[in-house]
User: Fold TBC1 domain family member 13 from Suricata suricatta.
Amino acid sequence: MSSLHKSRIADFQEVLKEPTIALEKLQELSFSGIPCEGGLRCLCWKILLNYLPLERASWTSILAKQRELYSQFLREMIIQPGIAKANMGVSREDVTFEDHPLNPNPDSRWNTYFRDNEVLLQIDKDVRRLCPDISFFQRATEYPCLLILDPQNEFETLRKRVEQTTLKSQTVARNRSGVTNMCSPHKNNAPSSLNEYEVLPNGCEAHWEVVERILFIYAKLNPGIAYVQGMNEIVGPLYYTFATDPNSEWKEHAEADTFFCFTNLMAEIRDNFIKSLDDSQCGITYKMEKVYSTLKDKDMELYLKLQEQNIKPQFFAFRWLTLLLSQEFLLPDVIRIWDSLFADASRFDFLLLVCCAMLVLIREQLLEGDFTVNMRLLQVTGLGGASQAPAMRQILTTQPPTPAAVTGWGQERGRRGQTPEADQGLGSGFEFWSRHSSGVALSE
Assistant:
């Protein structure tokens, strides 16, 4: 560990030990990258996302209150409905004409159950394939939810709901990788490498199942937006960061902490997921057009090229903005980018600048390519693809800028194609994120 890195850790510790955290100072430090050591990133994210207040003295009581509240959500939205479902049709009351599976009444318990199942199946489908490049989400968590997995509890868990909703003509086999294999009993499918894994033993659950539970509860508490595909990509890096915290107590409560941080983050970006708001000033269409208007100011030649080829920002920037770049880079780089994103007071204006800089970074390829090549570059490989990995590393190994310098840096490098070392002398802004805090060690 370099002396500079040790100094940065000391700077964070100095700020975080104060009775009242100096938010501006913490934001300034975090923008340049948060060290992984000592759980600093987890703590800083919780403060920056307004989960923990600035007054240290209230942290213990706030955490206890919020974690108990989350346990109550589990009881009300998973355990109690699971008990009710298990009892449906058993008592005389449940077989009355007022409550049966074909009852069209929207307030019927059965109707609610079926609506919830539709949401749950979509969540289940998405979380199973979360971050497929690492095994973390398919592995068993060290801290399974005892409220859910207690063998004395006889109720329908989310896992059982998904399995029972699956078509009976399919054979469902669960393995420890957390993937459900479905095959027709009348067909002989080729052997799958997934069959090499053992079934998760009773009392265990995979990390993706924890994420599934978080998203299901969020959907129940927010019926206006419920669940939209892509939310899993937002909650994934949050949960991964908290679930790998070196502090065992905080790691144990990663599920509850992730839920509230995710809820706070979604409060800021939820308009991106509401289709009826797409064309409003707070909607995603406006933000995508803002990327192009910024590009027009910074690089007219590239802007005109994309306009000439009729490449609309909707073709690529929709994913970049709604998922906070989580699909454009590998998980360690996403976490590093989010350090800066969460730390910036105008975090989503900063996101627009980063998206613009990403375009300018690959300007030479875009200027030379035709429509098909450019669409593939923007949609398939993006900046995080294998061909752009060196460029991403160059971004992450330079010095921290002001947000306004990001597009200036991208423009300068896009035109000159120089290395970080060659560009470090540029006063106009080949400066991005700090060499000494950009590394994120993956726990697979």
